[in-house]
Amino acid sequence: MGPRLSLVVTTIGRVPEIVRLARSVDASPAATALELVVVDQSPDRRAARAVEELGLALPMRTGTSEPGASAGRNAGLALAAGDLVGFPNDNSWYPEPTLPALVTRFDAAPDLQVLAARVETADGRPAMLRWPRRSGSLRRSTVHRVAIAPSLFARHRLVEELGGFDERIGTGAAGPAQSGEESDLLLRAMDRRARIAFDASIVVLNDEPRDRLDDRFVTKMAGYGVGQGVLWRRHALPLPLLGALVARKLVAAPVRAARGQRVLARSDLAWARGCVTGYLTGDTA
After folding, report:
1. Which of 67, 117, 181, 231 has a CA that sits 20 to 30 A from residue 189's CA?
2. Residue 280: count of CB within 10 angstroms of its CB
3. What pLDDT, in 10s, does the model give residues 119-143?
4. The model's pTM
5. Is residue 138 helix, strand or coil?
6. DSSP string spanning 189-243?
7. Angle, CA 88 vertex, CA 155 and CA 65 arms, to 5°
C-alpha cells in the first residue's frame, strides 16, 4: 500500500531547515502513511542529498525543476504517490499531532477537498498572516487569510485537475508577481465548488521571516504586493477589501517608523505600492 499523504517541498539548498522538516515528518506517529518529496533547485542538490544521508525510515522521492516555488511544487506533484498532498516550506516542520490529525480529518469527511491549517512559530506566535480565530468554511473574501503553502492540504486528484500551481506567479517566478499562487489555486477550486475548510486546531510550525529583516525583505514585500494585486484583478475579488488591506499598510508604516522599525515600515510601503501596481497592470501572461 502506498502513502496516504505526500508532503511536497521545494528548496534551493537550505540544508539545516529541510533536515529539521524531514526529521519532524519521520518522527510523526503517522509516518508509515507519509512520504516526503523534495524538489531541490540548487545545482549540487545539497539539500536533497542531506535528507537522503539521514538514513530515515521515511519514504522519500527527490527531483529538480526550473526556478520558482510554483514550478517546484508542480514537479513534486508529478512525483507524489499519495492521494493527499501538502506543501510545506523548506523552513516548516510539524508537531507530532498534526499529520495524524490531518489524515483523520480527511478520512472523516470524504467530500472535503482542501483543508487549511494554522501556521505558528515555535513559540506560539501566528506566522506570516493574520489567521482567523475560528475554524470554518472559507469564502472568496477570506481565502487570503489562510492561503500560504505550508497551511494547505488537498486531495491530489483535485490539484491535478486544476493544473497545479500557476508558474507565472509566486516566489521565484520569472515575473514581478511573487505571491498569490496559493490563493489562486484555492479560488480556482472554489470555482469548481470544491469544499474547502480551515481548522484552527491543526498547527504547522514555520519560521517567521519578519524575525530576520534586511533590505532584501523590502524587495520581497514589493513582489508579494504585486502578486496580491494581480490576484485581486484576476479573480475580481472585492475591491473595498483590497483598499482596506492597502490602507492598513499605509497606516502601519509611519507607526513602525516612529518605533524605529524602519525596515518593516519600508516593507509596508513597498507592499502597498506593489499591490496597486499589480492590480493596475493585471495578469502576468
Report:
1. 67
2. 9
3. 999 999 999 888 998 999 999 999 9
4. 0.94
5. coil
6. HHHTT-EEEEEEEEEEEE--GGGS--HHHHHHHHHHHHHHHHHHHHTT--HHHHH
7. 90
